[in-house]
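To start, an entry.
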Amino acid sequence: MSSAVFRAGRRSLYRPPAARMFASSRWYSSTRPSLDEEPAPEKESVNKEELRKIALEFGRRRAAYNRQVSMLRREYMDEYQRHQQQDEAQQEAERQEITRRRLERQRAKNERSVENTLRQEELRRQTQLAFEDHLRAQQEKRDAKKDLYTRAQQMLVDELEEEAHLWLTTSEEVEAAFTPEAEQLLWARPQGVIGVPNPSLDSHFWQYECHTWDMSKTYKTHQDILLEEYEEEVYRKTNIDPEFWTPERVAARNELEAKAKLRANVRLEGRRSLLMRQKEYLEEESQTGEAEPPKPQPIPSLGVLANTKAQEKEGAEVLFKDPTQFFIFDRDNQDDSPSSAESDSYSGPSLGVPIALRDPLRSNSPQGRVFPRAVGKMPKPDMRTEKEKKRQEREEKLWAAAQAQSRSQMDEIDLAADEDADVGEPLDYDKNEDWDSDDEEWVKGLDPDIDSELIEMPRELRYREEDIDWVIESLETKARNMENHVRNSVNSMEQELRSRKERRGSVEAESDDGSILDQATREKLSAAGADADKYEKLLQSLSHDQLLSLFALGADQRSDSMEGEHPFQSIPGLSDEQRSG
């Protein structure tokens, strides 16, 4: 038993050989004893029985100790396993709680996704229905507009078919239609048409005018203005036939133009009145009280601009209320009492007979023009002596030096004060006496009583003898230039004719190269029923002076001015055969 216990104790105290070797080495020293050390005493002999008892006691104690350690380790292991199971159970519970929460969140998210999907599907369905309604409404509008365009096109086609037989389709019809009377109707007066009757007696296009102010840096002098007026007058006399435009025709045309202008002015005034009334309505609509929030400005309607009937009706009401806005009367209105706005007709003082239409752009202008016309004049000659010129140059240099010195001494505050300084009243150019005026020279030699009209004549209409002489000289120079141009043209034609005659060598050359008239002119003469070869021979038989007279006759002859006499009586040297031809 003791041996078993001892063995058990030995087994529990078992150590590896290295450990035993290390442990046994502690009992011995590898160092040699020094001479100072005393040798160890010899071990006393111990009783083996006592050693055996001691060993047995040690084995029992060691065994008991091992059993207690084993029991304690089992208890520790049981407690560790119990704690581990508790921890695992707690962790498992936490994992289950986390999983449960995650699943609940996922479920809530899935429910929201389903709700959003249903909401989006409902919104898409409503949008689709609204879009279909919009497409249906737009299609109805397109169909209505298409029907309107179709009806308008059909009406246009019907109107064109009614007047289609009056159209000019060939060049012969056009040439036949452009008679001298037709040219006068088409080009002499505004709103002229030929080929078809005038669609309306008073076209509304009179209200559209284009006015451009001449912004050139070089102003026209009195001489240039007078020359332009004479050239315009000559152009009118040359192109407007006074025998065609009789006083009756001119009066009828003026009446027609006056009606058109009056209707355009009435429509324009009605448009302005409607727009002002619409503006007042919108301002009243956007007004708010003290405690109310501000309202946005309503958007004005553009239907006013397209409703011409409403514009004419409103303009007619304005005309009846105040005719002075449209007419100029022969009696000056001394009493400026305004007309009653409540009544539908004019209730002011008697105005007399209307003598002219009031032009909103020209009636109140001093010059009767849309823009004022600036008239330039040549500077007067410098009559100063050399001494006076040098003195003025020296004074100007001294003044410039003094101004530069004063500016250098001034600081920014002084400059700001000068900029804010009051310069006085604005300059009145009508009462300015410092400018270079010609009134004294114009009034010189005129009687204030007899020549009052000449004295009060505007400066832009004052012409002197030297201006008239310059205009006459310019016109003579232009006339000479034109005569030279015509003479050169005739010389060129004669030279070309001579060269053709020199090259003429065959019948083909006579028929082709020897002809003065081109193919287009021959076709026009043939279409008019004239003999082209006859005219060709007549032109070839004329001399240089006779060709010049023929060109002058073509420039001066009008439609009916030569009626009753032969058209070629003014050409000198014509034979009876040439006149009859």
